[in-house]
Design brief:
alpha+beta, Dbl Homology Domain, Chain A, Herpes Virus-1
Length: about 525
């Protein structure tokens, strides 16, 4: 009975391999005979994009499809029919599969290219194609992962199969050899994926720098990037800058004035060899190299008490948030207007608040202990006393909303964020400019802010179930729409590339697919 149980388990694993192989061949058919064939036809008939781009992405897919359909799958089917006579699996995988594993390196590269957003050159054609029923309403990027994941699937099934086999089984040695070959191929595949991921990040930074910096090299590795504040030696003011750290150099960048997208220009290069970093005061550090020295300050998006505690010891004032980047009071979250709710800056933290929330005064050390206007939180922290009872009551009684998610914080960890124009069809209002974010922690929800620094979203839209498509007609360029039941939201991007990326991200979220991107597209 024990031997029969083991035999049955081994048979079940072999049967699972066969059924997953049948499903896998159908996916390969979809990639080769549908996506690749129709994209090639489109490129040749209309010259919408170069055929070389299609061939590069679908590298070896045709050969892999023919091998699995004509050789491996028939061999597995025949073996399962004869299982009672020849219950072996390792010989087929060792002889037939292991030899062809090298072809999968091209698939890894193709899948990586898909994930970089290069597919935007396919435009609307690819979006329309993947909505067809035979494509399962899944994107090309999703289907391109099948060959990459299949190698790991073979490895898992073979490990389970070998674990169930008795050491004296005739299939044991062949299965061991097959597993070794497939495990090696899986390691190479994983290494190739990591290498391509590093290259993808380099390409994104290369694009961010407008292609003006020679950084795309296998020896280069991106370590960290992000916004920073540069302290001026002349007057102590701070300026917004962008740092990009590689394994061999640090790039000090400044924003470029552009109407579409955000680009940076390299102002200075400091090589890691010989670089020294020293911390002068909290949040401020000095980077010294042979080429240049920079005094930098970390941005602060932290709880108010920690902001003020650090700000008190500084000799320079805070960096004020620009008024046009805020539409709500950053304390009480009431909307501003030009008559009864005007904007004021807190002189301690730099936040934009209303008159009621900034009716307090406190002495600030950076201003020679002169009395300045401060917000209620800074007042309580600086003086060490609780805010007035009336103010505290108003703040604590205000019900916290799920929309209270500061835009600047959400944008730093987002799947996608940028400025768009939008309107709700039939809503009675015209086009409005707003800031849109899909947070990394909530990849299936779209948040709409009035401005990039607002502390509260105007609206949140759960994305599952929406249909994303192009409008029949629209009075704005680069438009797209989301429809659900009787509701239609129209959007307009500033560029075609931005339109394509938003449509791709929203389409995936509408199907419940959580994006694996760790970087956001920050365009404003």
């Amino acid at each position: 009975l024990q031997q029969l149980s083991v035999s049955q388990r081994v048979f079940n694993i072999a049967n699972e391999l066969l059924h997953t192989e049948i499903a896998y061949v159908s996916k390969l058919h979809l990639l080769d005979q549908v996506f690749c064939a129709q994209l090639m036809e489109e490129s040749r008939s209309r010259a919408s994009f170069p055929p070389d781009v299609v061939q590069g992405i679908f590298s070896n897919i045709c050969s892999i499809y023919c091998f699995h359909q004509q050789f491996l799958l028939p061999a597995l089917q025949k073996r399962m029919e004869e299982w009672h006579v020849n219950p072996c699996l390792g010989d087929i995988l060792m002889v037939k599969l292991a030899v062809f594993l090298k072809m999968y390196s091209g698939c890894v590269m193709g899948a990586s290219v898909c994930s970089t957003g290069v597919l935007s050159v396919f435009g609307v054609f690819c979006c329309v194609l993947q909505t067809e029923e035979r494509c399962g309403s899944l994107s090309l990027q999703h289907h391109m992962l099948e060959p990459v994941q299949r190698i790991a699937r073979y490895e898992l099934l073979l490990k389970d199969y070998l674990h169930r086999l008795p050491p004296h089984a005739p299939d044991y040695r062949d299965t061991q050899k097959s597993l070794e070959l497939i495990a090696t191929a899986a390691e190479h595949s994983n290494a190739a994926i990591k290498k391509m991921e590093r290259m993808r990040k380099l390409l994104m930074v290369y694009e961010l720098l407008g292609g003006e910096e020679d950084i795309v090299s296998p020896s280069n590795e991106l370590v960290k990037e992000g916004h920073i504040l540069k302290l001026s030696n002349k007057n102590g003011t701070s300026q917004d800058r962008y740092l990009i750290l590689f394994n061999d150099r640090l790039l000090y960048c400044v924003p470029k004035l552009r109407l579409i997208g955000q680009k940076f220009g390299v102002r200075a290069r400091i090589y890691v060899e010989g670089m020294e970093v020293s911390v002068a005061v909290p949040r401020t550090f000095l980077v010294s190299g042979k080429q240049r020295s920079l005094e930098l300050q970390a941005r602060y998006d932290r709880p108010m008490d920690r902001q003020v505690d650090r700000q008190v010891d500084r000799k320079a004032g805070p960096t004020p948030i620009r008024e046009k980047e805020v539409t709500l009071c950053m304390t009480c979250q009431e909307p501003f207007n030009s008559i009864t709710k005007r904007r004021h800056h807190c002189r301690a933290c730099g936040h934009v608040v209303c008159g009621k929330c900034s009716e307090f005064r406190a002495r600030l050390s950076y201003d020679n202990n002169r009395t300045n206007r401060v917000c209620v939180d800074c007042y309580a922290t600086l003086l060490g006393v609780p805010p007035p009872p009336a103010t505290l009551t108003n703040l604590t009684q205000r019900r916290r909303s799920i929309l209270e998610k500061q835009a600047s914080l959400a944008a730093e960890n987002s799947v996608m964020c940028s400025c768009l124009y939008y309107q709700e069809r039939g809503g009675g209002r015209g086009w409005q400019k707003a800031w849109f974010i899909i947070p990394e922690k909530e990849p299936l929800v779209l948040y709409i802010y009035g401005a990039p620094q607002d502390v509260k979203a105007q609206r949140s839209v759960p994305l599952i179930g929406w249909q994303v498509s192009l409008p029949e007609s629209c009075d704005r360029r680069h438009a797209f729409k989301m429809t659900q039941s009787h509701m239609t939201l129209l959007f307009s991007a500033e560029a075609e590339e931005l339109q394509t990326r938003w449509m791709d991200v929203l389409s995936r979220a509408a199907k419940g697919e959580e994006s694996s991107w760790s970087t956001s597209l920050d365009l404003f």
